[in-house]
Amino acid sequence: MKNFKTFLLMGVMTFIMLALGNAIGGRQGVYMALVFAGITNFISYWYSDKIVLAMYGAKPVSSNSDVYKLVEGLVKKANLPMPKVYIINSSQPNAFATGRNPHHAAVAVTSGILNILDDNELSGVIGHELGHVNNRDILIGTVAATFAGAISFLANMAKWSAIFGGGRSDRDDDNGGGIGLIFVAILAPIAAMLVQMAISRTREYKADEYGGKLCGNPIYLANALEKLELGVRRNPMNANPATENMFIVNPLSSRDKMATLFSTHPSTKDRIERLYELARNN
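Given the sequence above, the corresponding structure tokens read:
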């Protein structure tokens, strides 16, 4: 089922890319976008995790480090394969998991998160990320991020094409090609973002529940989320918007209500309330 969802995601994102290609260059644009989509599909499945880790300068941690041992203990408790563990040199407290499947997974934490969380709270965060690994949705999140970046790239091409008089070149095109091109260039990234939102919000709740149970007390994760939300606001990260869905807390978090409405994450307040309810019911 998870593989089906991944291929469905690839299909939807490919369709958006083909629509962009059609707007840019008609039939030839579709062919160009089809090749681009094929390359993106291949890269996103096999190499997207490496790309994202390299994007944030993630470095592997020593097997003797405290964070490695913490991950190792939770992995044994969850009966999961040991993922690779990375650290990102950023003052913003955050974390994400990536990879193709549980046997090719990686967990990355920022240096900032190690500075503000105690061991129990960090266990909750790592448990959340292992929830993504266990639920086999790490590939979906990484593929969505890779495609969103590619679609943004094509959308920028479309905007420049419209500015310099480009657009569809098919003979059956009408005179409104430039306006249509601008419209598609604006609409395509929004469509990609909505797909990311639909994927991310549900899986965050599921990973919270898994992590809350795995760490031994859902309150640990609830406390961690509260600290992370505040830490993200105080320590901005130069994060790629295409990858925001991968982090445990949106690295581009904002108090603006409109930004929250279109966030790839459910509200932290709602997540904390659910964790407290989970604690009461256990």
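The beta strands are 59-60, 84-88, 95-99, 105-110. Try to locate this feature in the token string yourself.
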